[in-house]
Fold this protein.
Amino acid sequence: MNEKSERDYKKKGRYVKRSGRRNNINLLIYVIIMISLFISLDRYYFREFTTLKYGEFYRMVEENRRTDKISKAIKQEEIVYGKFSDGSRFKVVVPQDDPELLKLMRENIDDFSVKAPSNWMQFLFAVAPMLLLFLLFWLFIYRGAAKEGRRIFSFGQSRPIQAAPGKTKVTFKDVAGVDEAKEELQEIIEFLKDPKKFQRLGGRIPRGVLLMGPPGCGKTLLAKAVSGEANVSFFSISGSDFVEMFVGVGASRVRDLFNKAKKTAKLSGKGCIIFIDEIDAVGRQRFAGIGGGHDEREQTLNQLLSEMDGFDTQTGVVLIAATNRPDVLDPALLRPGRFDRQIVVDKPDIKGREAILKVHAKNVKLAKDVSLKVIARRTPGFSGADLANLVNEAALLAARRNKDAVGEEELEASIERVMAGPERKSRVISDYEKSLVAYHESGHALLSVLIKEVDPLHKVSIIPRGASSLGYTL
């Protein structure tokens, strides 16, 4: 990625962070202003007053001509606000219609007045707390509505997981046991690194690569490794993310995804990878039928076919998809010009299993007597995910046993746990059932000994494991 594109990526990330931070700061400022305003008005209007009793106040007024204790008084409805000669303030509740008190105050208090009721001020301070709460509530609702509005307008936009160039740390060194698949993908990496090398002779790079194979064999990891090796942007999305109950949304998301990939490739000056996991969710074979969901999926598939057939190879966008069920994919999706390369990612052989075990054992402290070649020979039919789980289970078991390193015993126990499940020693089985299970497993063991072409016999057990296994033969 060139310097300009890096600056654009960083600016975009900073803009998103700053916009969210700016909204929070604005809300905090609004709250502080409202609280400060309320406190200032409260201090101005409700200054500290000494509350007097009516009888006490009446006597003070009678004696005020002699004592001159009250310097000022204001009568507002049934409340009299006043000021003593020493500057302190008081208030007292009096009968609203008391002509004698009113006459005494006029005669004995030099600065006396009757003030018309200020209903608006009383109303303001009565409703100010509720008004403040309502304003805060409205701000939260407004922000939520604004977010929802943006979501509504972005409903047809794709939301892939994007990794900028250099962010994908996975390389082919982290992928083992699929050497043939890596060789097939090496050409894609060369094209993404230097597209002009292939374009100058009129060659056309494959527009799409379909990774097929059982679950857990490393299809997604391979796609990430291609991005890491080529050092290009990587868009990852699941096939189910395109399909919605609303007609037209899936097609819109497909268009938006490819537009984002094209812009990113153009901005970076390099290629770009789109990875669609479980593409059978959107690329299933079309049939004649009626139904909203059926029509929506077909429209999404049609848009995907159009994008794959229509986007220019000069843009440097390569589509990589993964599926466990290639048999259900639409034939139009598999034709040359769309998925030109169809790569089988199968379960590893013994050498592949050993290589995968070495990759996962890098972060685990193994005992010196552990032979990964023996473990690989003991795990026929294991996928890469099974082997990763095996190493992890062995590490957990060694930790539970307070050991300093993972030994052969923990790995052997983990193989049985991954294959058949955890032991169920608490399950009660009658002697008759035990004998039946023993005869059954003895038959497996006898055939393993007599038939030389099968894997050698390692262990026979009638200890129940997992949900339904009463015994097993390894």
